[in-house]
Amino acid sequence: MTDNTRVLIFDTTLRDGEQSPGATMTHDEKLEIAQALDEMGVDIIEAGFPIASEGDFEAVSDIARNSKNSVICGLSRANLKDIDRCWEAVKHARRPRIHTFIGTSPSHRGITNLDQDQMIERIYQTVTHARNYCEDVQWSAMDAIRTERDYLCRVVETAIKAGATTINIPDTVGYTLPQESAEIIRMLLERVPGADRIIFATHCHNDLGMATANALAAVSAGARQIECTINGLGERAGNTALEEVVMAIKVRRDLMPYTTGIDTTKIMNLSRRVSQVSGFPVQFNKAVVGKNAFLHESGIHQDGVLKNVETFEIMKPADIGLTETNIAMGKHSGRAALRSKLSDLGFDLADNQLNDVFVRFKALADRKKEIYDEDLVALISDSTANTDSDYLQVKWLRVVCGSDGQEAELKMTVDGVEKSARVPGDGPVDACFKAVKAIYPTNARLKVYQVQAVTQGTDAQATVSVRLEEDGRIVTGSAADTDTILASVKAYVGALNRLRVRSQKTAPDADMKTVSYKI
Ligand SMILES: CC(=O)SCCNC(=O)CCNC(=O)[C@H](O)C(C)(C)COP(=O)(O)OP(=O)(O)OC[C@H]1O[C@@H](n2cnc3c(N)ncnc32)[C@H](O)[C@@H]1OP(=O)(O)O
Ligand SMILES: CC(C)C(=O)C(=O)O
Fold first, then answer.
1. Atom of ligand 2 nearest to the CA of 12
2. Using an 8 Å Cβ cutoff, are 410 and 421 in contact?
3. 168 lines ligand 2 (CB under 6 A)
4. 8-278: CATH homologous superfamily?
5. Ligand 1 atom 31, closest CA
6. Residue 169: exposed, middle, or buried by beta-carbon count in 10 A (0-12, 13-18, 19+)?
7. What is the CA angle 442-445-447, rounded to 5?
8. Which residues contribute to the annotated binding site?
9. CA distance linking residue 84 with residue 51, whole number of Å
10. 249 and 7 in contact (C-beta within 8 Å)?
11. pLDDT of res. 517
12. SS3 state at 44
């Protein structure tokens, strides 16, 4: 790369993002997200960890086969077997990359049981092995921030000598602060021979809410690759959010005189899609993509924005793809308007899918006065995920609520056989979930139950996310409906379908390639 002002965007939504407990995506969802990232201009897509499971291997291989512009990268530990497997998957890409890593800090050296010199040997051996396959090799010093500075210089020098072309300096545990993040990159550039020949990357976690600031500080000091995820998804508190660093660089060109290759107008649609497939709602006040990010509620702000939009807006909604169209969707709208609106929202559906969504759209329009973009996105989520082949299907539900107590009456099919139950509960949702359990006994533990109104108004659709855990397996189900209780049951049953399929696979991380289980 010759342009020193260009910052490469390395998206790891499909690898580190998928490590968020419960965020597992299906094979087809991963392919779809990868294609959208490629079209958005992401420079490098980390598609997965090929040795982790057969499903991850197949997903990385297929993403590599279908890639157009982006470099496709796979992760591997510092051993020959992982690297071989990684190459087998990424080699199908027009532009493959092997990413290999090892924990270099004192506590991480303890995990792999290597002393400082043994680790240096391991790094040299594994990076050389990767380079024998591939010209583009990234090496990461996991927990670099807590690694002794002199030793960090040694390991980085070793990786460069062995042929690494990108060196990543991760803040694996989200411990650093901007001044330190910058200082480490500056030190490496000054002290390590050959550092000027490679690209330094920054990979920050958000445990202290510093991920974006730390990534930008590293860039100011000379890093030229930012590792990030859509919506900041990732281990624990997540990673640097792609939308935040990209928009910060765009908005503050005066302080950050850099560019990225990202088409920012695709941000909003991709954020919504990742939220759907991962089952992780975006918090309302999330920077850039939160529902409230461009809303002005108080009088002085509204007055200011009406007089001059720049008073309270530092970026235009259109810059991230939030556009207002003059097509109002309602019960009198037809297929053409629906197709056009969905296309604006980033969904290009086949005719049969459009017909399916159209039926649901009309049913919703009968119940709801105004149909907002968010309603349509929720509808799509429901229709693309609900399959007739689901083992458990909700057929009918009636709930009695009120001060005299609550009771749910439910009919479901279990593998095609209709069953019913009538069960009291401590509240309507509790009664419903107990009714599901009466029909389909399960030991799955409810870890998260979350309801979010998709739009305003009492007729708003509710999106419900349910996370279940059984034997260490965590799955998420989500569903939307104007009836919050019905959405809750559908989300719960959807998660049970996912859990059932996952438990049938031998590997805990096995992928769900053939069926889509979210309802
Ligand atoms: C900071 C990060 O995000 S790192 C990436 C984290 N992502 C993941 O772990 C998701 C995918 N992981 C997996 O599917 C599994 O952990 C696998 C398939 C990779 C390994 O599974 P297992 O063989 O059962 O090992 P397990 O997970 O119990 O332990 C990890 C092993 O890798 C070793 N290890 C960890 N990091 C590295 C590394 N960078 N290089 C070499 N070995 C490593 C550990 O020492 C441990 O080895 P041991 O079994 O000899 O003690
Ligand atoms: C594998 C590395 C890059 C990682 O995810 C981390 O250190 O957080």
1. 5
2. yes
3. yes
4. Aldolase class I (3.20.20.70)
5. 112
6. buried
7. 150
8. 16, 203, 205, 239
9. 9
10. yes
11. 26
12. strand
> What's the 78 CA to ligand 1 centre distance in angstroms?
10
- Looking at domain 392-504, its CATH superfamily turns out to be Alpha-isopropylmalate synthase LeuA, regulatory domain (3.30.160.270)
Let me know the angle formed at the C-alpha of 484 by 478 and 490, rounded to the nearest 5 degrees: 40
Pocket test for ligand 2, best of 11, 76, 168 (most atoms within 8 A of CB): 168
Predicted TM-score (pTM) of this structure: 0.82
Q: What is the pLDDT of residue 381?
A: 67
Give the residue, by CA position, lying nearest to ligand 1 atom 20.
Answer: 52
Residues with C-beta less than 6 Å from any ligand 1 atom: 16, 19, 49, 51-52, 77-79, 101-102, 111-112, 142, 172, 235, 509
Q: How far is the CA of 207 from the centre of ligand 2 (A)?
A: 14
ipTM above 0.90 for this complex: yes
CA of 152 to the centre of ligand 2 (A): 15
Q: Nearest-CA neighbor of 126 among 113, 110, 111, 139? A: 139
Name the burial class of residue 190, with classes exposed (0-12), middle (13-18) and buried (19+) by CB atoms within 10 angstroms of its CB. Answer: exposed
Task: Provide the pLDDT for residue 518.
Answer: 30
Query: Which residues are part of a known binding site for Mn(2+)?
Result: 16, 203, 205, 239
Give how far Cα 70 sits from Cα of 64, 66, 448, Å: 9, 10, 35
Give me the pLDDT at residue 508, please: 42
Span from the CA of 18 to the centroid of ligand 1 (angstroms): 16
As a whole number of Å, the CA-based R_g of the chain is 24
- Ranges of the chain with pLDDT below 50: 383-385, 506-519
Q: Where are the domains of the chain?
A: 8-278, 294-322, 325-384, 392-504
- Backbone φ, ψ for residue 262 (5° rounding): -80, 130
pLDDT reported for residue 248 = 98
pLDDT of residue 323: 76
Separation CA 410–CA 414 (nearest Å):
12
Q: How far is CA 180 from CA 36, 172, 215, in A?
A: 34, 14, 11
Q: How much is the pLDDT for 506?
A: 39
Cα distances (angstroms) measured from residue 407 to each of 425, 428, 465, 490: 6, 7, 22, 17
> Measuring from atom 2 of ligand 2, which residue has the nearest CA?
142
Measured at the alpha carbon of residue 143, what is the angle toward residues 141 and 149, in degrees to the nearest 5? 75
- As a whole number of angstroms, the distance between CA 222 and CA 182 comes to 8
